[in-house]
Specification:
The protein is mostly helical. The protein has 9 helices and 2 strands. The longest helix is centred in the last third of the chain and has 25 residues. The N terminus is likely disordered.
C-alpha cells in the first residue's frame, strides 16, 4: 500500500455551537464512503504502518498523517466543528501523498484525481451548510464575526493548514496576527523566524485568519487537481 498516513487519534467532540449539524455530517460521511468504495482508494483508506514497510523517512516528510478511516471515525464521533475542519483533514490526505511520492508518479496522479473529485463534491456540501452562529440566532449565509472559542479540532486543523500555504500567504497571516493578536507571536530576530501559539490567538482574530487560510488551501487544492488534468506526465 502507498505510504500516506500513520493514523491520527480520534478528536474530541466540538462545542455546542458547531456548524456540523446532522444533515451536513451525513453528507460529509457520504463523500468519504463513496471515495472508500472505489477500488483505487485502497492506498488512502487506512493508516500507514511505515515501520513495517521500512519507510523510516516517512515521519520527517509527513509530520501530520491522515487517512480516510480516521476522517470517517471523527465524523461519526462528531469531532469536526465545521465543514472546513472536515475538509482540511481530507485535503491533508492528498497533500501527504503528493509530498511523499514523486511528482508525476502513479500515486501522485491518483491523489490529484481524488483531490479533484473531493473538491467537486465538497463544494456542494459547503454551500448548503449552515453559517457559523446561525444556531445562535444569526442569519444563515452571513459571514461570521464572533468571539466563539475555537475547538481543539479547529485549532489543530488551522495549525496543520499553516504548513500547506506559501510564504506570501503565511506572511499575510503573521501580519494580521501581529496587528490584532500580537500575544500569540514569538519572534526570533536572530534567525528571522516567528512562532505562532494558536492557543494565544484571540477568538475573533482566529476565525478571521482561519477562514483566510482555509480559502487559500481549498483554492490551491482545486487548482492543483485541475492542473493534473492538463497533460501531466505519466
Amino acid at each position: 500500500p502507498l505510504p500516506l498516513s500513520k493514523g491520527a487519534a480520534p478528536k474530541k467532540a466540538p462545542p455546542s455551537d458547531s456548524t456540523m449539524d446532522k444533515t451536513t455530517t451525513d453528507k460529509c460521511s457520504k463523500i468519504i464512503t463513496q471515495i472508500m468504495a472505489r477500488t483505487d482508494s485502497e492506498p488512502f483508506r487506512e493508516p500507514v504502518d511505515w515501520k513495517a514497510l521500512g519507510l523510516f523517512d516517512y515521519p520527517q516528510i509527513v509530520p501530520h498523517p491522515m487517512d480516510l478511516t480516521t476522517v470517517l471515525t471523527n465524523l461519526s464521533r462528531g469531532s469536526y466543528a465545521s465543514p472546513s475542519a472536515f475538509a482540511s483533514d481530507v485535503r491533508l490526505i492528498w497533500k501527504n501523498c503528493m509530498s511523499y511520492n514523486a511528482d508525476g508518479s502513479d500515486f501522485y496522479l491518483l491523489a490529484q484525481e481524488f483531490s479533484k473529485r473531493f473538491e467537486e463534491k465538497f463544494s456542494k456540501v459547503a454551500s448548503a451548510a449552515p453559517a457559523q452562529g446561525a444556531g445562535q440566532g444569526g442569519k444563515a449565509g452571513k459571514a461570521p464575526v464572533n468571539d466563539t472559542t475555537p475547538s481543539a479540532a479547529e485549532k489543530s486543523a488551522f495549525a496543520r493548514s499553516l504548513f500547506r500555504i506559501g510564504k506570501e500567504e503565511l506572511g499575510k497571516v503573521v501580519t494580521v496576527l501581529d496587528d490584532k493578536s500580537p500575544a500569540c507571536l514569538t519572534k526570533n530576530s536572530a534567525e528571522d523566524e516567528v512562532e505562532i501559539d494558536v492557543d494565544q490567538i484571540s477568538a475573533r482574530v482566529f476565525w478571521e485568519v482561519y477562514e483566510y487560510v482555509e480559502n487559500v488551501v481549498g483554492g490551491a487544492s482545486a487548482a492543483a487537481a485541475a492542473a493534473g488534468q492538463g497533460g501531466k506526465k505519466k
